[in-house]
């Protein structure tokens, strides 16, 4: 069984910053591809960022590129999402996801179907 737990969400003002954390534990390959997605009310879940198992490769969604940085921690499947210059449109529930089958980022990194395990999500609210 694999557990994925996010933390660090909350309320921020436009222009501010937040750092989200995600830790995955259980029976995984270790150093898996991990990604962040977000879902606003009434909208579909959308890709935010992904990082390879080594931490060397990253890809960002167009809506956050230049404002967000994904990174890995030193301990196994731990990843962070540093979000700067926040905008009201960043308001959403942010989900961390793990691909239990890959160390490198595949062609379908942007699809939720590419990921095997998900956290419960953490709310990010940005006020104007």
List descriptors.
128 residues, mainly beta, seven-stranded mixed sheet, four-stranded antiparallel sheet, 11 strands
Summarize the helix and strand pattern as letters: EEEEEEEEEEE
Q: Please describe the biggest sheet, giving its number of strands, its sense, and whether it closes into a barrel.
A: 7 strands, mixed
The structure class reads mainly beta
Beta strands, count = 11
Tell me the span between the first and last alpha carbons: 40 Å
Query: Radius of gyration in whole Å, from Cα?
Result: 13 Å
Beta-strand residue percentage: over 45%
Helical proportion, percent range: under 10%
Global morphology: globular
Q: Could you report the average pLDDT, rounded to the nearest whole number?
A: 95
The residue ranges in which pLDDT falls below 50 over 5 or more consecutive positions are none
Tally of separate helices: 0
What features would you describe in this structure?
The protein is mostly beta strands and about 130 residues long. The chain is built from no helices and eleven strands. It has strands at about 1-5, 10-15, 20-25, 35-40, 45-50, 60, 70, 80-85, 90-100, 115-120, 120-125. The strands form two sheets. Strands 2, 4, 5, 6, 9, 10 and 11 form a seven-stranded mixed sheet that branches. The radius of gyration is 13 Å and the shape is globular.
């Amino acid at each position: 069984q694999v557990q994925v737990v996010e933390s660090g969400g909350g309320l921020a003002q436009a222009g501010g910053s937040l750092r989200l954390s995600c830790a995955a534990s259980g029976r995984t390959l270790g150093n898996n591809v991990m990604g962040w997605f977000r879902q606003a009310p009434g909208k579909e879940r959308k890709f935010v960022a992904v990082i390879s198992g080594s931490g060397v490769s990253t890809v960002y969604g167009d809506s956050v590129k230049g404002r967000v940085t994904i990174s890995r921690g030193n301990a196994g499947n731990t990843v962070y999402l540093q979000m700067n210059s926040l905008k009201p449109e960043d308001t959403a529930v942010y989900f961390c996801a793990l691909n239990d089958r890959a160390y490198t980022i595949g062609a379908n990194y942007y699809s939720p179907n590419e990921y095997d395990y998900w956290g419960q999500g953490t709310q990010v609210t940005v006020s104007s």
